[in-house]
Automatic annotation (TrEMBL):
The protein's name: UDP-N-acetylglucosamine diphosphorylase
One example GO MF annotation: UDP-N-acetylglucosamine diphosphorylase activity
Involved pathway(s): Nucleotide-sugar biosynthesis; UDP-N-acetyl-alpha-D-glucosamine biosynthesis; UDP-N-acetyl-alpha-D-glucosamine from N-acetyl-alpha-D-glucosamine 1-phosphate: step 1/1
Keywords from the UniProt entry: Nucleotidyltransferase, Transferase
PANTHER family assigned: LD24639P, UDP- GLUCOSE PYROPHOSPHORYLASE
Domain of life the protein comes from: Eukaryota
Length: 471
């Protein structure tokens, strides 16, 4: 497209500065900048700034007078579920897997910056005896489930593993999976696709330049999933493969029950089109969002959106926190629900705004690294779709069995490799003791290929000395 035509469009939206250095650029640099500009939906992107202003104005408005707890008929619990119910849900989930109707949607766009590494989080090794990475642990849980479904129902058409990456993690992720032969999964059952990027905007409403020939951009958040599903043909692929049930989760939970058949079975039994797993909040001030109702609609409310007084409210019946359903980024969707969101509601999703220190090119063409926030990054969150569900359910699980996020370097002391490793080893120790082991010394890990959730641990010795991998 002619640069003069682009210039007219940019000026219309007060973004003419993006071509300020055009005459100084090489031909290759001009092509790079033109590619960035042609990808822009200027009307949409520039509207983000007005949303940002509105968001800042609403930042201190609390929701105390508008929130209610989850309806009793919308929440189930693996903690209080009796064995017959548990088996019923598990069998429904395993049957869905055996028929080839289940996909996993792994959100793996984040780099391990807070962990102190420069590669994708999924490639991180927390130091278990096996030294398996997050990617390997999750792939092997999928493989074990395929085996379980085949043993139970005589066949298994496989679980499709969709992996949402970002510009920064896409190629390293593919290279890592390919190098490791997809950890035993069928290559055609592993599909990686990239989330979108959104331009960063200065406080004056102008899109920032990262270089004279390149816009400053950031990933559009895990809520960018819904646009990426449509734009990159993943929804079409799901429909072609006859996928009905999708388990979506973030990469950094080392205890994740990938494609959990009990959770899937519960959602199927309830005829849910959208479901979430939650854990009980450890304390009123724990910095996690809670699943609740706002103005009669289900949503996730951030801890900063309710007062300390409201966060401390307790139920008269059992003394538990009134708002205790901690969100852990663990979701069930039907394919029909995802299609409806992507086609009808994606453009309506709430924008989440963060003030950031964003490198930029100043008016003299010099790249600056700011010491204070100078602009905004815009994200959409995966959980903001639950208000569109026709039948929404919540499944409560035990934190010690299903939730241990890996976010920080070890010096922080929480949500780090130390705590992740500790939680995995503690869980596996409980499995082995239940299976008949009398004594365990040192670090002992159970391979996901042997046991998905503590089953299949037969002929175990009385005493196990670690470090050791049971496989």
């Amino acid at each position: 497209m002619n640069v003069d035509v682009i210039r007219l469009q940019l000026n219309k939206y007060n973004q003419g500065h993006l071509l300020k250095f055009w005459d100084e650029l090489t031909e290759d640099q001009r092509n790079d900048l033109m590619d960035d500009l042609l990808e822009l939906n200027l009307a949409e992107v520039t509207s983000y700034f007005s949303h940002a202003v509105e968001s800042f104005e609403n930042n201190n408005k609390l929701l105390d007078d508008r929130i209610e707890a989850i309806d009793d008929d919308a929440i189930g619990s693996s903690i209080n579920c009796d064995l017959d119910e548990w088996k019923k849900y598990e069998n429904m989930g395993l049957n869905e897997i055996s028929l080839g109707h289940v996909a996993v949607l792994l959100m793996a766009g984040g780099q391990g910056t807070r962990l102190g590494v420069t590669y994708p989080k999924g490639m991180f090794d927390v130091g278990l005896p096996s030294h398996k990475t997050l990617f390997q642990l999750q792939a092997e849980r999928i493989k074990r489930l395929e085996t379980m479904a085949k043993e139970e129902y005589g066949k298994c058409d496989g679980i499709i593993w969709y992996i949402l990456t970002s510009e920064a993690t896409h190629e390293p992720t593919l290279d890592f999976l390919n190098k490791n032969n997809y950890f035993g999964l069928r290559k055609n059952n592993v599909v990686a696709f990239k989330q979108g990027m959104v331009p960063c905007i200065g406080f004056n409403g102008e899109i920032l330049l990262d270089e004279k020939y390149r816009l400053s951009k950031a990933p559009d958040g895990n809520g960018g999933l819904y646009r990426a599903l449509k734009v990159q043909g993943i929804l079409d692929d799901m429909i072609k493969r006859n996928i009905r049930s999708v388990h979506a989760h973030s990469v950094d939970n080392i205890l994740i029950k990938v494609a959990d058949p009990v959770f899937i079975g519960y959602c199927l039994y309830k005829n849910a089109d959208c479901g979430v797993k939650v854990v009980e909040k450890s304390q009123p001030t724990e910095a996690v969002g809670v699943v609740c109702q706002v103005d009669g609609q289900y949503r996730v409310v951030e801890y900063s959106e309710i007062s300390k007084k409201t966060s401390e409210l307790r139920r008269a019946s059992d003394g538990k926190l009134m708002f205790n359903a901690g969100n852990i980024c663990n979701h069930y969707f039907t394919t029909d629900f995802l299609r409806n969101i992507s086609n009808e509601h994606e453009h309506e999703l709430e924008l989440h705004i963060a003030k950031k220190k964003i490198p930029y090119v100043d008016e003299n063409g010099v790249r600056q690294i700011p010491s204070t926030p100078n602009g905004i990054k815009i994200e959409k969150f995966v959980f903001d779709v639950i208000k569109y569900a026709k039948r929404f359910v919540v499944w409560e699980v035990a934190r010690k069995e299903e939730f241990s996020p890996l976010k920080n370097c070890d010096s922080i002391g929480e949500d780090c490799s130390l705590t992740a490793r500790r939680d995995v080893l503690a869980l596996h120790k409980s499995w082995l003791l239940k299976a008949g082991v009398k004594s365990i010394h040192g670090d002992v890990e159970v391979s996901p290929l042997l046991s998905y959730a503590g089953e299949n641990l037969t002929n175990v010795p009385d005493v196990i000395e670690g470090p050791k991998l049971i496989e």
